[in-house]
Amino acid sequence: MTTTHPAGTPAPTASPAPANALTGKRRVAFASFVDENYLPGFLALLRSLALSNPALCEDFIVLHDGLRPASVARIRELHPRIDFRRVDAAHYDTYAKGDQDNYLVRKAYFILDVFRIRDYDTVITLDTDMVVLGDLDELLRLREGLAAVPQFFYGQHKLNSGLLVIQREYLSDAFCARIDEVGRNGAYELDKHDQGILNAVLDGDFVQLDSRYNFVKRRLSGDLPVPDNTAILHFTGRHKPWQGGEAGYGLAEDRWRESELSDAEFHASYLALPGAKHHDLLVHYGTPHVRRTADPDSARRVAAAHIGAGEYQEAAELLGSVRIPVDEAWPHEVLGHALMSVSRYEEARAQLLLATAAPNRAATAFSRLAQIAWIHGDDSGAARYALEGLGVDPTHRANRLMYKRTRDAEAPAQGPPADQLAHVAFYMDRQGNAGDKLLPESVRLAFGRDTGPARWHSVHAHRLFDEAALERVNARRALVIGGGGLFIPDTAPNGNSGWQWNVPDELLERIDVPVMVYAVGFNAFDGQAYGHGRERFLSSLRKLVERAAFFGLRNHGSIEKVRELLPSSLHDKVRFQPCPTTVTRQLVDGWTDPARRDDTVLINAAYDRSGLRFGHDYGHFLAEMATAVKGLGTRAEVKCVAHSLDDERIAFDLRREHGIALPVIPMYDFGNDEIRDTYARTRLVIGMRGHAGMIPFGCGTPVISLISHPKMAYFLSDIERPDWGISVHDRHLGARLVERAAGMLDDHAAAVADVHGRQRELWKVTEANAADLRLIQAGVRV
């Protein structure tokens, strides 16, 4: 298959490595062959797919042998992730029997080009004479084989190719060679074309799907109604609904006409659907709807989708473009959220105050007002707003945490500024992520045994770095920034830097003490982008690297990502500095390895941004973890270790779905010494969070990483142990976890020795960097 782009569409840039190369996340796409004759059917198909599956949006590959620019534009208007690929009929000439000009023959042969796709793990074909009427989740969860509905009239051993669910093993040169061989030999039914070829190749060896996924029109002869459970209705035969239809199928054609809508009708219908909607679809259809109608509630929903994806400027621009009535509290609250996320704090405050008038939005609005006050260093104001929010809703978690943060905050006794280092970090609240709680102290240990206020001046990364903060930092010996994944767009959004430290460029440039960036990570997920704020982030990043005397990132994957964002002149300034949690045994004063370990295996799963982590595979992951827990339970006691409250979900889900009881260790309630002690005394940790791998490793405990984020693979690559990680999408995750864990548990002494050996290599890097850092603090340029 050759790939070209129709006239009027921009040529793509060179494709980078697949986003799922490190995480193993399945890439799923739909595919159809489209020409001008069947374009009305395809447009109806796209509308029906969105209206029946509003939370589903995967890439859609359009195979074609020539489409007009206007047709290309119409297709793009109906789907935000279209990939046009032109196919070449030449490779079918040898077995098309001179019938290439017949559309049905062309369509039948060209859909075989789907087997030549190499950049997806699962491809689902849909004929352009189909409409989708029901949920397709079951198809998206399929992971093995080639699945299709058996032919209704031709026996259960043959498939109907209108709907195919094709896994990677069939998207291969070997399978294409078998198709070509059968096609050249003519060993198939001439009147079935692609069905005949596939049936001849497969010889009945396919996964059989229920007929509701390819319910053929012919079953409804005599004007029978479409069954309620039909997921995909297929208008087989030569008479198509957009061509006038066929007598005897009126009720079926009425279902097709439900998707024959104008753009305005379609957009309004999509927005009116109940339940969750996919970000890409909601933005794609909602934006023109808002521009057409100026409806504030629609604008609020689209803006909320932007916010959920970290697109704060887009949210502020869209919702700010419509007139919001004073008494419409929810749009005011969402606009306030967007504005504060791009550091337009005064405008945000005005919107949030309006939102406090409505009881159903007041608690959230007060929590955001409290956040703005805290960002500006006004603890008493933040406490007042949080208390007002608790007055509306005593259970509101954000207000409760802010009230505790501000009421319990006491300025610690400080040593002489000239003897101190300033430290920009994310200082975690109570019951916050255990890894982030441990990080600031771990960074400080890398600079000496004293981690307290006598030697360190704390600067919370999420508070606005203003003139007063600048003065306090410049009074210290130097500034340390780290650790953790500070380069991420949505953990603490702001318009001053575009990353977690809320620092304007002009103040960053006026820091006149040495700046040392220590073990910071680039933490964006696969599929996560900086959106409209990318330029702001790039500018801040460049200024930070230029200003830094030391710029150390915690893994080589982050180094590669950051260097891609910098001019070549700054590449050499970016160096490797392992996360200090990975060398805990070397840093903690008086560390001794445990004389004995508990006979336990600790499992950690993470649920933040779960769509980016699991895609369509959460059910698969949970079932495989059930297998793993049962297998591991014959060797040790298996427990869930929760870095945050949300991490407990795996215990709840395993109990509900698989009847497995898993004790929970609430590490989010632990102090730093208790975190280290717990990880040092277990035999093995199987963790999904980055620091559920790095902290136990640093304590000398063997680890296996559940990879759902690139940073896990980065760390294992750095220590030259990629086999210590398994993708959460792995088909045989449970069995492989048990096998690898068994090897580590059976020869535990060797596994611990291997961890110690890998750690020594990271410690060598840390010691070499420490020598440079001492020179920098002494005023020597390195």
TrEMBL record:
InterPro entries: Glyco_trans_8, GNT1/Glycosyltrans_8, Nucleotide-diphossugar_trans, Polysacch_pyruvyl_Trfase, TPR-like_helical_dom_sf. Pfam families: Glyco_transf_8, PS_pyruv_trans. Gene3D superfamilies: Spore Coat Polysaccharide Biosynthesis Protein SpsA, Chain A, Tetratricopeptide repeat domain. One of its GO terms (molecular function) is transferase activity. The keyword Transferase applies. SUPFAM superfamilies: Nucleotide-diphospho-sugar transferases, TPR-like. Residues 479-707 form the Polysaccharide pyruvyl transferase domain. It comes from the Bacteria. Keywords: Transferase. This is Polysaccharide pyruvyl transferase family protein. It comes from Streptomyces brevispora. The lineage of its organism: Bacteria, Bacillati, Actinomycetota, Actinomycetes, Kitasatosporales.
